[in-house]
């Protein structure tokens, strides 16, 4: 009855242009709108209005309604018409909302009245039925112009305005999904009370929307759940309801910003580059790291993963475990006529259980040896089945000679193991793609993005940087092959097509389980990032599709998050059920760093006095308290570094370090036990000098008693933390910079490390800058290397002088921006500017598009060009590919798809590594195209062009736009 809208409803299109709508997926914000009961003159009936079509003659009215619906959905078979007729009759007879609208229709004749539906249910207790239909008392007829509360639905007889329906309105579900809630039942509203499970009495706590919908999606024996029978409709319902749940949580965060600002901001938490500027606090809206899936949350997870790496080195195995919709546990629960894709609730539940058992199989049964630590994160792929990335660290590292026995990339021999042969040939064979099957989803630009088929090789080879090259024997050398039928053609598949797997895990779990050995992977940071990147939701950028909307507040993290997220049905149901998307063991405890009294306190007028007296307790303050204890625990704590405390003490609810009571007994301190838990001291931006040096002391000094005590070296008290660091020799020989950069290499991106290095150069004047560069140039350049690898889809590319040079230029640009000094000033060899002209920032920006992604846009959108657009598209692409040049003027009324066409042209050129500069006359127009800039910015046009007859562009031939303008 209402219209459903989202920033974007995503259709899945395979590489061959075929659409597979296996799941429902939306991007950005979602909204429901409702209009008036009757359409404006000369307009056709839409949505709710269809129920009020036709005259008094009920038979003709029915026929009209059925016509309107069938026309709208292009249905013309007699069966479809009969179904529509039956449903119309059902709704007219039983839907309470419709009955209510009809019974009030006569009151609306004058045009002065409206129907109002209250958003909340009449307080519970008065209605005993669980899913109340609105009773007439809840609905009021009001005079137009009367004040209405914001969440009320106000329906008029005829007007042009569409009203947004608040997602907390109890009729939201019934208006959007009349077929599921065919009686007009109430959905979630805010004042449903929780009940005591024992006595059944109402408590004063409200039921959250997550609990409400989780309850509604449950399978109960002996009772039918209509939602689970609705196939594609239930997919949409799940996404819709998850968005509702998320909106409720985000609204809470928006209204509690003051508290969050106090808790989230530095120095209690990591200095995130963007938020380091405390002056911005005033207008920023924070999405805290406690919000699962938020960028801060992802960042904390990556940092925690790197804590494992710092402690235990590289992970041993990287496992990708994908849900198999053919698992018997799933198929046995399907209702007649359903397949797995109709029941995301079942696939989610079964996958969660399987994942749990896979993890415990590895970690508790020690199949690959005792486990040191592990972590996983769940994601959703294109077809939207869940998969998990798992990292495992074992006590005994996997040796190169053992890899063959653990990981195989060969087809098993069916004569010795028929079961494994069946599992591997159904689950672990890539493609085929390439010339055998050009429409395979992995194919981009005629190449397989996963680089299959691999080469035959008789013995496993360990790569210098990357995964090992596993043994794949040809049939002549004893390898197996089998026949696979693809679109009626028999194809002989051999070992070149096998995705590396573990025979043991594959056999037990019968699914796609890719197992890789990470022992020789250099840039482990990127694997940790990849594992923790989260679903599409984390990969977001700010974009504003509505030209008339006010400019986005870049510091409003909540809105930016809502605009950028993607939600698919499976992910929605996973989150409604409250399943974890990350898990890890052991725990990583975050340790605060702040100056004395520098912890932020949250207070209101009422609590200010109390807060001033009772300073909030932090892990750092309490560490000092712990070291001050007069008992044996205090004495033991004095032997510990701050980051070691969580091994022996737990951070209790009462905000105190309490001795652990489980684990391995500690000999030195009876009654104390040691655990595997790790501590991570939050990083501090070196710009906050004193706090930075305090952190340096905390990671080097054991058992400090207070902020003063930590500044005491050999009995002498120093006034500043820096002086204490100097006295301890932590600052000699640039050691601290060396260790700081080494630590940053584990945690930060190349860009962040370069900034750090530039700050060190310009503000701290290290004695041997060149040595620091030589020691850390790899980590400062790894983002550049990574970019090359993604761009050319080639993981064998390694560091080159050109990349180091590019990195050096970026550092020099920063030094010039900070201190206006070239790097030669700091005793480093200069960057080679002339050789890198083509690599400078402007050029880079134009070259950093992901060709695979761009090609994806092209292959998805070219088939949907209309005839006229296609003619223009072909003509312009001909001019580009033939290098003939040209000047085209595209003139068409607004809304006919000019922007769409131009975006596609840009993507096509960029997908082939070409440079396409998008330039628009105004800033607003520039926001419509990817990578678009205004003409003033791109060509350095002078602003006073009208008054100055001699105005010229300030564009130089030497700068990159000169180059790229030529290349065009
Ligand atoms: Zn392929």
UniProtKB/TrEMBL annotation:
Query: Helitron helicase-like domain: from which residue to which, for each copy?
Result: 212-391
One MF term in the entry's GO annotations: 5'-3' DNA helicase activity
Q: Which InterPro entries match?
A: DNA_helicase_pif1-like_DEAD, Helitron_helicase-like, P-loop_NTPase
Q: Which GO terms describe its biological process?
A: DNA recombination; DNA repair; telomere maintenance
What does the record list as coiled-coil region(s)? Answer: none
E.C. numbers:
5.6.2.3
**Enzymatic class:** isomerase
Key words of the record: ATP-binding, DNA damage, DNA recombination, DNA repair, Helicase, Hydrolase, Nucleotide-binding
Cofactor(s) annotated in UniProt? Mg(2+)
Q: Which residues form the DNA helicase Pif1-like DEAD-box helicase domain?
A: 865-958
Q: Which reaction does it catalyse?
A: ATP + H2O = ADP + phosphate + H(+)
Which protein family is named in the record? Belongs to the helicase family.
* Protein name from the UniProt record: ATP-dependent DNA helicase
């Amino acid at each position: 009855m209402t219209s459903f809208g989202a920033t974007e409803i995503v259709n899945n299109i395979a590489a061959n242009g075929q659409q597979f709508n296996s799941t429902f997926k939306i991007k950005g914000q979602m909204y429901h709108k409702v209009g008036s009961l009757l359409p404006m003159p000369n307009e056709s009936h839409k949505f709710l209005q269809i129920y009020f079509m036709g005259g008094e003659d009920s038979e003709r009215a029915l026929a009209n309604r059925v016509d309107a619906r069938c026309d709208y959905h292009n249905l013309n078979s007699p069966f479809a018409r009969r179904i529509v007729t039956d449903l119309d009759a059902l709704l007219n007879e039983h839907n309470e909302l419709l009955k209510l609208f009809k019974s009030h229709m006569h009151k609306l004749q004058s045009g002065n009245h409206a129907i109002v539906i209250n958003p909340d249910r009449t307080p519970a207790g008065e209605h005993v039925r669980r899913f109340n239909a609105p009773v007439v008392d809840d609905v009021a007829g009001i005079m137009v112009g009367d004040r209405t509360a914001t969440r009320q639905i106000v329906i008029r007889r005829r007007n042009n305005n569409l009203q947004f329906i608040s997602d907390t309105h109890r009729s939201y579900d019934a208006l959007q999904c009349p077929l599921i809630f065919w009686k007009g039942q109430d959905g979630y509203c805010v004042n449903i009370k929780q009940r005591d499970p024992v006595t059944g009495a109402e408590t004063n706590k409200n039921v959250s929307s997550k609990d409400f919908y989780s309850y509604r999606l449950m399978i109960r024996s002996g009772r039918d759940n209509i939602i689970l029978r609705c196939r594609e409709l239930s997919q949409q319902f799940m996404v819709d309801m998850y968005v509702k749940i998320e909106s409720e949580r985000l609204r809470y965060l928006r209204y509690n910003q003051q508290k969050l600002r106090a808790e989230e901001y530095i120095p209690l938490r990591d200095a995130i580059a963007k938020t380091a500027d405390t002056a911005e606090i005033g207008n920023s809206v924070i999405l805290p790291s406690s919000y699962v899936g938020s960028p801060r949350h992802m960042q904390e997870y990556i940092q925690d993963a790197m804590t494992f790496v710092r402690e235990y080195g590289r992970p041993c195995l990287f496992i990708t475990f994908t849900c198999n919709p053919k698992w018997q546990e799933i198929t046995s629960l399907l209702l007649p006529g359903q397949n797995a894709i109709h029941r995301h609730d079942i696939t989610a539940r079964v996958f969660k259980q399987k994942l749990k058992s896979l993890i415990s199989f590895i970690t508790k049964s020690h199949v690959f040896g005792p486990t040191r630590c592990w972590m996983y994160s769940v994601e959703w792929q294109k077809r939207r089945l869940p998969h998990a990335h798992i990292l495992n660290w074992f006590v005994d590292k996997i040796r190169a000679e053992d890899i063959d026995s653990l990981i195989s990339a060969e087809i098993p021999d069916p004569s010795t193991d028929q079961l494994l042969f069946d599992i591997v040939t159904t689950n672990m064979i890539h493609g085929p793609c390439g010339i055998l099957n050009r429409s395979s989803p992995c194919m981009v630009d005629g190449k397989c993005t996963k680089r299959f088929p691999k080469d035959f090789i008789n013995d496993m080879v360990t790569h210098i940087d990357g995964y090992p090259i596993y043994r794949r024997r040809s049939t002549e050398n004893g390898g197996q092959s089998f026949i696979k039928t693809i679109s009626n053609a028999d194809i002989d598949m051999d070992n070149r097509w096998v995705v590396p797997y573990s025979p043991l895990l594959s056999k037990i779990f019968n699914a796609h389980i890719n197992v890789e050995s990470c022992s020789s992977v250099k840039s482990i940071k990127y694997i940790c990032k990849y594992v923790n990147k989260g679903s599409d939701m984390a990969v977001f950028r700010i974009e504003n599709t509505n030209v008339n909307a006010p400019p986005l507040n870049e510091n409003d993290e909540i809105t930016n998050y809502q605009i950028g997220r993607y939600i698919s049905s499976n992910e929605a149901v996973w989150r409604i059920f409250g399943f974890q998307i990350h898990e890890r063991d052991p725990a990583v405890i975050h340790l605060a760093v702040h100056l004395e009294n520098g912890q932020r306190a949250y207070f209101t007028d009422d609590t200010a006095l109390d807060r001033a007296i009772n300073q909030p307790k932090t892990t750092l303050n309490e560490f000092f308290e712990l070291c001050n204890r007069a008992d044996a625990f205090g004495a033991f704590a004095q032997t510990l570094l701050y980051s070691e405390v969580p091994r022996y003490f737990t951070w209790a609810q009462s905000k105190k370090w309490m001795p652990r009571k489980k684990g391995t007994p500690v000999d030195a301190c009876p009654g104390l036990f040691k655990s595997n838990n790790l501590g991570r001291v939050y990083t501090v931006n070196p710009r906050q000098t004193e706090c930075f040096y305090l952190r340096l002391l905390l990671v080097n000094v054991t058992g400090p008693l207070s902020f003063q005590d930590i500044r005491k070296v050999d009995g002498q008290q120093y006034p500043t933390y820096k002086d204490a660091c100097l006295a301890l020799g932590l600052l000699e020989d640039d050691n601290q910079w060396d260790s700081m950069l080494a630590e940053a290499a584990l945690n930060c991106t190349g860009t962040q490390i370069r900034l750090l290095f530039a700050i060190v150069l310009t503000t701290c004047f290290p004695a041997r800058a060149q040595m620091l560069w030589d020691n850390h140039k790899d980590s400062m350049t790894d983002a550049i290397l990574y970019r090359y690898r993604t761009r050319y889809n080639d993981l064998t590319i390694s560091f080159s002088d050109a990349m180091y040079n590019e990195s050096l230029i970026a550092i020099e640009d920063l030094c010039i921006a900070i201190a206006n000094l070239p790097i030669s000033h700091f005793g480093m060899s200069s960057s080679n500017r002339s050789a890198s002209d083509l690599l400078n920032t402007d050029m880079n920006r134009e070259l950093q598009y992901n060709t695979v992604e761009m090609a994806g846009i092209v292959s998805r959108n070219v088939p949907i060009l209309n005839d006229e657009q296609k003619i223009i598209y072909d003509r312009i692409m001909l001019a580009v590919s033939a290098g003939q040049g040209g000047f085209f003027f595209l003139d068409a009324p607004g809304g006919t798809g000019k922007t769409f066409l131009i975006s596609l042209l840009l993507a096509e050129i960029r997908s082939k590594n070409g440079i396409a500069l998008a330039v628009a006359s105004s800033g607003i127009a520039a926001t419509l195209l990817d990578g678009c800039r205004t003409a003033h910015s791109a060509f350095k046009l002078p602003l006073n062009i009208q008054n100055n007859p001699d105005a010229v562009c300030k564009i130089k031939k030497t700068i990159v736009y000169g180059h790229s303008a030529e290349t065009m």
